[in-house]
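User: Sequence in, structure out. Go.
Assistant: Echoing your sequence, followed by the structure tokens.
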Amino acid sequence: MQRRQDAPLRCCVFLLLLVTAVIGCNRRRAAIPPIQPVPVSAPVSVPLLPEVAILSSDGYAAMAAELKKSLPREAYKVTSVDVDTEESRRILPSLRERSGMVVIAIGLPAARVARDRFSGPVIFSQVFNYQELLGSGRSIRGVSAMPPLDLLAKEWKKIDPKVRRIGLIVARPHSELVTQAEKAAKAASLSVIHEVSSSDRETLYLFKRMAPQIDGLWLVPDDQILSPAVLRDLLNYARSHGVRVCVFNDALLQWGALMSATPTPVDTARTLRRLLDGMANGAKNTPNLTTVSELVIRLNVDVAGHFGMPSPPRAAWVVRSDR
């Protein structure tokens, strides 16, 4: 009987506990902050770097390395290729497919590859007979393979005061060199006697004819009017007839030249970099050929002694323009 009487009381207690539990659960739910969706950041666009291919041929690896070192990674994406290697056959086709690529070619073989196998802008260096590269109507510019003749003339007169008259033999496409040489010589109180040649044998004939009239010769690196055989004959004749020869290729010092004058790799790389930056920034009216402002002179001490010249304190030194 007592259990029946307690049943309603127990039922009320149960309902009270149930209601209290439900209210407490709802309060806890209300205290928990809702989960916020994680915002999705917009994709960051990384600007694409301009692509540059440095093509070089045998003998210009050091120049290519100097140039690559001068191009910062944060400004350009650079690929270097030696066109004389088997690997170039695999790399070059893939480079040709990249739009907007600028090619810097060092040496005539590399410049011909750039002209014939690429359609974009080309910058060349270490090319004396560059005229063949300019006939396509494309954007092709270059850095002169010749050092500044005004610097050379003054330095030659400084180390060899006896020199008065300089000979110069050029092919017809390089007749502008005569004007440059005459201007440079005049500034150094020198004079120039020049001839135009059309073959290697004619060059040797013209030199022998002018040898009695000159003290020195600027022997330009033109394989259109020179050959190895003629070079040897010419240098031997010059030494035996008192003509000092300045060449623009260091290797010819071993053949009997008095001195060599060549652009420095560092200055050539700087000049190429300026042309590349200008091209990337849309520069207009860039000349076909840009001159450098620095040269290195190397002296053949034995030949200098043969001509009775005082030996300089060092066999090689750099001359810079003050402009």
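User: And one key feature?
Assistant: Residues 2-31 form the longest helix (30 residues).
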